[in-house]
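If you are new to this repository, start here. Below is one unmodified record pulled from the training split, so you can see the exact layout before writing a loader.
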Amino acid sequence: MTASRAQLTLAEVEAIAREAHAAQRDKAGRPYGEHLAAVAEGVRARGGSDEQIAAAWLHDAVEDDALTERWLADAALPQQVKDMVLAVTKRDGEELAAYTRRVLATPGALLIKEADLAHNADPARLAVLEPATRTRLTEKYALVRGLLGLAAPRPPAERQD
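And here is the target side for that same chain:
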């Protein structure tokens, strides 16, 4: 992220996100922090910037009421991070087409949503869900990928250690 001392570091953003979601579990009953870490890592592995990684850590915070929009507005974060978080935040009653248009219109947000969808659609995560839920979510994720122009899940680049 930017080199300003006043800005939160990635480590601080991660700690804030983990604490904000500490009591939350995902649909499979796993600690929600695992999802946040997977999305942040997915963004990093796909070549995302520090700003995109920060937004990945916070991508569900406002939507899940873990943090408020006011908190986000006042946070010591670059405006680009705030814009990406709000772009991927679904709003009550919002049509999917409007949501995906906002993601596409916000610089940097598509990569965050791509990493989010990739983790959400991970067959290992879906396998533990009830069949009806698994089918519904698989169809939903495919629809969102299509609207975003992401034809199929793209795994992160192979790591070269």
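Two things worth knowing about this chain: The chain has a mean pLDDT of 91. The CA atoms of residues 13 and 32 lie 15 Å apart.
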